[in-house]
Design brief:
heterodimer, A: 518 residues, alpha+beta, 4-stranded mixed beta sheet, 15 helices, disordered N terminus, B: 321 residues, mainly alpha, MetI-like fold, 2 domains, two-stranded antiparallel sheet, 2% strand
């Protein structure tokens, strides 16, 4: 009798707990978000996670095309003024109505001098509330990429910000904490139920979402698992349903467990490339032979992309001929032809330029996929044609200051054009002459008048077709001058448990769970 | 006694100041935090401005003096990565680390002491010698490897225990505990086992050596002649005489465990102070690193001071020293 009762209680408990479990997606990420405040730390991953709760005026759809989110429509009324009609009937998670005031307050917060996200919307000058659901945004010049920028400027509730004294972003220098670090109030498909930093952040479905949900998830539990072996173990044992960072070396093992695990593989938007110093002297003080086009071409010809793809990247990467991935606007297939290795020709070119066997430092960090091995492979290929690369490998935090101070000869760079998702991100920040807000990542000190002219022209061209043609032209100039050597697009591997039915893979490496069916 | 105490506290403060000094000396080689804080599109002037606001342009001595000055007033500032108060962050993580360390310590005593007794009384038998030999593995295997092995066996293959995290926690005031829930208790097993493995073998070897010594003593022989049962002889009379060094060792090792828990915490994604510190290193989060190092050295110094005071109370000869 006793036993039966226990069984009955157990069954009842099971019945109670099962419906709650259905629709729960446990997401094992490789790191945690640092804060619930999207304007706290310049971090694409955190912005991607918080996009489940907060939304911008625009967003990316299934195919990474921009579509209106909180804006219903927009028009360009003068070259420097955009008018947005806002969606009506949208409610924040606290029940407040979404209006133009909210957009203005959010833009102010994002562009505050202390906001680390200010660079995400560089052309912003000001905004005017026209009526409850109309707002005009002024930009500094013709600026075709405003819509791209607005995808990462998430909208807060103005009243909520004011009430909680959070109208300005938190300033770590001042020593006072911000309300938005711990609390969330967006308009998105999920709201934050609870958060324990580095342990678990729970999102639950928001029933009042303005859009028709395509997902059937009731609850998301985001758990960071920093150690990749532990993450793979958690996936195999069923403790998590999804990871956006399946380590490349464990892919065969996950593939073998095909009954329990589904692998989603693709190529990332991030293009890995090698850049050169264009200064008169190398770090060693010797004159810089890499100012000669023939030397740069020789260094490119020495690299065997197929070998790197096969051996170092285990066949998972995509060899690149252009500096941006195919999905990025501005990409031109005609340029994207990988250069075939030809060590003999490389040697001949080096001889012709009188630069045989020069010594240089090769600065490598640790953030790209298998970066250490890629660098070692490239260095040995250069040694084969008689060059003397000195490998300088270190963590990103150590290498970046050297790079931005221009203390490099040759360096690696991975550029995904995030958060803009446009070739202009690369041409303006990596390849343009370093001046003003241009060329911040132009670590080699490259400067070419013609290139700058084309890039600046593309910045103010509002006609999309013409703009993309200009961007393709900049990429062509870059290729002809061998400004940087493109290597490959990195592999991207997500893995889900078998119970997830439809999980769209995004090549910007940001999961969008509101499109997932379990 | 008062002079002794004052001297010890003075020592403690000196140790902490020195630790912080070396910490700030090293921070410069960890890289540039500003590069980690801003995103790709920040302009150079944005970066410079942030660097100035954080006081990173000044020399390390100025940064160090400012840190000590603020710390003396109980101000440790905000974490650059989490934008939360550093003290709050550490207080939030301390219970997780503390519970892990206490359970690992209890495990090491509960397993290590009986094993030590058995290997002592069975000296020369095959099972005692193989246990003794096996304990070398515990000393020599690095704890991250032990952790991964435990996860592979108990979590992936057998599916008995969770391989990461802390399970559900219950908040008792500011203290969060995982010991009151089923999932929390299940989650603590593997990390504490992995953390205590080294400690178990240490306790076992210590108890074994002490037992061998004690079993040769006269009072054991007399007790035996008097007909005291063997079990009572080993566990009541002999063992009691072996425990003094074990208690000392355990007290000293708690500090070590807190400091070295960071490897275990990283492997098991245990949301404790070690995990926090590891992330702070990756992101060059100087306020968190500085506070963590100070607090851990404070714990070390306090434990050592207590041990010294206990000794001084027991042995008057040490008070003059």
């Amino acid at each position: 009798m006793q036993f039966k009762r226990i069984l009955a209680t157990g069954a009842a408990l099971l019945a109670l707990s099962l419906p709650a479990m259905a629709g729960t997606l446990k997401w094992g990420a490789s790191r945690d978000i640092s804060s619930l405040d999207p304007y706290s730390y310049g971090d694409s991953f955190a912005l991607g996670v918080l996009n489940h709760s907060y939304e911008g005026l625009m967003r990316y759809d299934r195919n990474l095309k921009i579509e209106p989110a909180l804006a219903a429509s927009y028009e360009i009324i003068s070259p420097t003024t955009w008018r947005f009609k806002l969606r009506e009937g949208v409610k924040f998670h606290n029940g407040a109505d979404f209006t133009a005031e909210d957009v203005q307050a959010s833009l102010l917060r994002a562009t505050n001098p202390k906001s680390p996200l200010r660079g995400n919307i560089p052309a912003y000058k000001g905004s005017r509330v026209i009526d409850e659901h109309t707002i005009e945004i002024d930009v500094s010049a013709n600026y075709p990429l405003l819509l791209n920028d607005l995808t990462t400027i998430y909208i807060f509730d103005a009243g909520w910000l004011k009430e909680n004294n959070a109208e300005a972003p938190t300033d770590v220098g001042s020593g006072t904490e911000g309300y938005a670090t711990y609390h969330e109030n967006g308009t998105g498909p999920f709201k934050v139920e609870s958060r324990q930093p580095d342990a678990k952040t729970v999102f639950v479905k928001y029933d009042g979402w303005w859009d028709k949900p395509q997902h059937n998830i009731d609850r998301i539990e985001l758990t960071p698992i920093a150690s990749s072996a532990t993450r793979v173990a958690a996936l195999l044992s069923g403790d998590i349903d999804f990871t956006d960072q399946a380590p490349v070396q464990d892919l065969p093992r996950l593939e073998a467990a095909s009954g329990q695990v589904k692998l989603l593989e693709g190529t990332d938007l991030r293009t890995v490339m090698i850049g050169f110093s264009q200064r008169d002297q190398l770090l060693s003080g010797a004159p810089n032979p890499m100012k000669d086009l023939r030397v740069r071409q020789a260094m490119q010809l020495a690299i065997d992309l197929d070998l790197i793809q096969k051996r170092v990247m285990r066949g998972k990467s995509r060899n690149a001929g252009a500096l941006v991935a195919p999905l990025i606007p501005g990409y031109d297939a005609a340029i994207d032809v990988p250069v075939k290795a030809d060590p003999e020709k490389a040697k001949a070119l080096l001889k012709e330029a009188g630069a045989e066997g020069f010594e240089f430092e090769f600065n490598c960090a640790d953030t790209l996929v298998n970066e250490e091995q890629v660098c070692q492979a490239v260095a040995s290929m250069w040694s084969r044609v008689g060059l003397k690369p000195k490998l300088d490998q270190g963590p990103r935090a150590v290498q970046t200051p050297k790079r931005s101070a221009g203390k490099v000869d040759v360096y690696t760079l991975g550029w995904a054009t995030l958060p803009m998702l446009d070739t202009y991100s690369l041409t303006s920040q990596v390849l343009h002459t370093k001046e003003g807000s241009f060329g911040i990542f132009n670590w080699g000190g490259w400067s070419d008048k013609e290139f700058d002219k084309v890039t600046e022209a593309s910045a103010v061209e509002l006609d999309r077709t013409k703009r993309l043609a200009l961007e393709a032209q900049s990429l062509k100039i870059a290729k002809d001058h061998a400004l940087m050597i493109p290597l490959h697009q990195q592999p991207l591997a997500w893995a889900t448990s078998a119970k997830v039915a439809d999980f769209p893979l995004f090549s910007d490496n940001l999961p969008r769970l509101w499109l997932v069916k379990m | 006694m008062l002079a002794f105490l004052i001297k010890r506290i003075g020592n403690a403060v000196l140790v902490m100041l020195t630790v912080a000094f070396f910490a700030f000396l090293i921070f410069r080689f960890l890289g540039d935090p500003v590069e980690m804080m801003v995103n790709e599109s920040a302009t150079q002037s944005d970066r410079d401005e942030l660097r100035a606001r954080l006081g990173l342009n000044e020399g390390f001595l100025v940064q160090y003096v400012r840190f000590v000055g603020n710390a003396a007033q109980g101000e440790f500032g905000l974490s650059w990565r989490n934008q939360q108060s550093v003290i709050g962050l550490i207080a939030e993580r301390f219970p997780a680390t503390f519970e892990l360390v206490i359970i690992a310590t209890l495990l090491s005593l509960a397993i290590g002491i009986p094993l030590g007794v058995f290997t002592a009384i069975g000296r020369g038998r095959w099972w005692a010698e193989s246990l003794q030999f096996g304990s070398i593995i515990g000393v020599s295997l690095p704890s991250f490897l032990v952790g991964i092995l435990l996860i592979l066996i108990f979590s992936v293959s057998l599916g008995w225990l969770p391989g990461y995290g802390r399970g559900d926690v219950v908040n008792l005031g500011w203290w969060s505990t995982g010991l009151l829930t089923q999932s929390g208790r299940a989650a603590v097993v593997l990390p504490s086992l992995s953390l205590s493995l080294f400690q178990i073998t240490l306790v076992m070897r210590l108890v074994r050596a002490e037992m061998l010594e004690t079993l040769r003593a006269d009072f054991i022989k007399f007790a035996r002649a008097r007909g005291v049962r063997r079990r009572a002889l080993w566990f009541r009379h002999a063992l009691k005489n072996c425990l003094m060094p074990v208690v000392t060792l355990t007290a000293m090792q708690v500090g070590n465990l807190i400091a070295f828990a960071l490897v275990t915490e990283t492997v098991f994604q245990w949301p404790g102070m070690g995990m926090l510190f590891m992330q702070a290193v990756t992101f060059v989060d100087i306020p968190v690193m500085a506070a963590y190092l100070c607090i851990v050295s404070f714990i070390f110094v306090t434990l050592n001071t207590f041990v010294d005071i206990a000794y001084a109370v027991i042995d008057p000869r040490l008070r003059a020293a």
